[in-house]
Structures are given as C-alpha cells and as structure tokens.
Design a protein that fits this description.
The protein is α/β, with parallel strands linked by helices. It folds into 2 domains: about 230 residues, TIM Barrel; about 55 residues, no CATH class. The protein contains 12 helices and 10 strands. It starts with 8 loop residues before the first strand and ends with a helix. Bound molecules: coenzyme A and magnesium ion.
C-alpha cells in the first residue's frame, strides 16, 4: 500500500496576505496551498512570491503538507515562480490549468534543470475543458522517480468559467467531470481533492457539498476560509463506527477458520476479501489522522 497521507482539508492562502500566511501555522488543516495565482492581483505577484518563499523556507507549519501554486505555465511569472518554489522546497508544487500529459512532463523537466529536490511532488489543477477530455493522459504522466504527480485538484470555478456550466446545489453540470477525474486519478494512484465552495458563510450548503465529494470518492476538499476546516475534516474522516466495523472485518479474516476464504459472514453480512482491503485502508487513514493531530 502506498504511503497514506490525510488530505481532507486543503486550504488556499493568498501569498500576498502576510496575516493569512502566519495564521496557517495554527489552523487544523491537513495541507496549505500558498497561492501565487488566482488569489493574487497582478501588481502583487512579486511581493507574494517573496513572502511565500520566505514563509515556506522558514517553516513552522508542523506536519501540514505545504504546497505552492505557481501562476500558469504560459504566464510571464511562471519561470520565476518555479525557481522560487524549487528553492523553498515545499512538499509539492501545484500547476494551474494543466491540459495534457506533456504539460506535466515539461514542468518536471524544468524542475530537473533547476536541480530541484527530486522529492518535490507535482499536483495538477484539473480546470480546463481539455483536462476533462485528457484526464487519462494526464494521469498516465504521474509516475516518475523525480517529481511524481500525486494529486488532482478540481478547479470548479475555472471549469464553470471556461465551459458555461453552472455551479448550483447538486452540481449536476459538473458530475461527469468530477467522476472522470476520480476514475483517472484512482487508476494511477493519484489523490483527488474537490473544488472550493464559494459561499463560505453557508455552513449547511458547504457540508452537503463535502458529503457529495466524499460520496464521489474524493479524498478531501479545497477550502478558502478557516471556518470551513472543522466541518470538512469531519466529513472526510472515517467515523468511529466505520473504524470499528473495519477492525471487526480485519479480525474476522484473521481467524484460523477463515484462512484462505474469499467471502465470509460477519454480523449477518456478506464480506469479501476486497472489503478487508478497504478496511485496512480505513484503519490506516484513521491512524495517519491521529499521527497528524498529535504532531501539529
Ligand atoms: N487562510 C488563512 N487565514 C485566513 C484565510 C485563509 N484563506 N481567510 C481568512 N483568514 C483569516 C483572516 O486573516 C482573519 O484572521 P484574523 O482574524 O486573525 O486577522 C480570519 O481568518 C477571519 O477572516 P474573515 O474576516 O472572516 O475573512 P475576510 O473577509 O478577511 O476574507 C476571503 C474572506 C474570502 C477574501 C478570504 O478568506 C480569502 O482570501 N480566502 C482565500 C481566497 C483564495 O485563496 N482564492 C484562490 C483559490 S479559489
Ligand atoms: Mg484557477
């Protein structure tokens, strides 16, 4: 089983807002995206880049996963963003508007040329019409011993802008794209994080959308405000009942009389070996969440 890393809550912090960058050190978010792109106005790009370089290099964020989102590959800022990110050594660099496997390979090659630490991962924003049609090709570019692609982030606001699809409760117009990216990502061991919920003061609507993302198979959700972290962590954490049930299944398969069996009965329900695999993942993720809590 690949290393399991909780990615329930992934908070965007505008790189231009020094106050937010500090605040991130005390928030219970699993990951932080230091944003140089959409959240930063053009005349603040250089300041944001310098502040993010300083903040990530200095650290102080405990076990939180640190990610820098550069500006788009075709923008005048990209080259300097990538060089600064390589220097700051975050856990990952998030590339906006990825639209092909070649885009991923190009960024990987540029990082190699910069002699960036090989362990810096790549994350891809899935937010263009082409990315929806080429999700498989993008996912196929994941594996590499330098800068593997490990996470897809759904960019639902850009998708709405580029396609004309509406973002309404239930997200009817987006469902096929969300599921396509889940399937493509899962086929290549890539985690999938849902898009943001703009109406951040609407707690009930937010929670419903978290549940929808979780039901679709996502690992977590991107967030824009600290108030979204706690409800998001709750929805994307396995419940106590789920953890207990997982342990029951694992124990049942370990009984001598069940050795070598593919399907057994546990508390009146049919349980297969595949459920034992799922149960092991549930336990592993809950343990990883506990470790994260105790270290931050
Ligand atoms: N990360 C870290 N801290 C944040 C934050 C974020 N994304 N958003 C708000 N905060 C902090 C504020 O600094 C403030 O801290 P303080 O009270 O200790 O000074 C506190 O949380 C409360 O903020 P609040 O007044 O409720 O929000 P706001 O009106 O200042 O800002 C937004 C609202 C939406 C503009 C702001 O949350 C934001 O910029 N979000 C991120 C947007 C983004 O990154 N978009 C790009 C990706 S879609
Ligand atoms: Mg975007």
């Amino acid at each position: 089983m690949a290393t399991i890393r909780p990615r329930r809550s992934v908070l965007y912090m505008p790189g231009s807002k020094q106050r937010a960058l500090e605040k991130g050190k005390e928030l219970a978010t699993d990951a932080i995206i230091f944003d140089l792109e959409d959240a930063v106005a053009p005349d603040m790009k250089e300041i944001a880049r310098d502040q993010v370089l300083d903040a990530v290099s200095a650290g102080g964020y405990g076990n939180r996963e640190l990610v820098i989102r550069s500006n788009g590959i075709d923008t005048p800022w990209f080259k300097d963003d990538l060089a600064a990110a390589a220097k700051a050594k975050p856990n990952a660099i998030l590339i906006p508007k990825v639209s092909s496997g070649q885009d991923v390979q190009n960024v990987r090659n540029q990082l190699k040329n910069l002699n960036a630490d090989k362990s810096i991962e790549l994350w891809a924003m899935m937010e263009t019409p082409l990315a929806m049609l080429k999700a498989l090709e993008i996912a196929e570019s994941a594996a590499d011993e330098s800068h593997p692609l490990t996470v897809f982030i759904m960019g639902t606001n850009d998708l709405a802008k580029e396609t004309g699809a509406a973002i309404k409760p239930g997200r009817e117009a987006m469902l096929s794209w969300l599921s396509t990216c889940v399937a493509a990502g899962r086929a290549f061991g890539i985690d999938i994080i849902d898009g943001v919920y703009n109406d951040f003061k609407n707690e009930a609507g937010f929670k419903t959308e978290c549940e929808q993302g979780s039901n679709l198979g996502m690992d977590g959700k991107t967030l824009i405000h600290p108030g979204q972290i706690a409800p998001c962590n709750e929805v994307f954490s396995p419940s106590n009942e789920a953890i207990e049930w997982a342990k029951t299944i694992i124990e049942a398969f370990e009984q001598p009389e069940n050795q070598g069996k593919g399907a057994i009965t546990v508390e009146g329900k049919m349980v297969e070996l595949l459920h034992a695999e799922m149960a092991k993942r549930t336990v592993a993720i809950s343990e990883a969440i506990e470790r994260l809590k105790s270290a931050t």
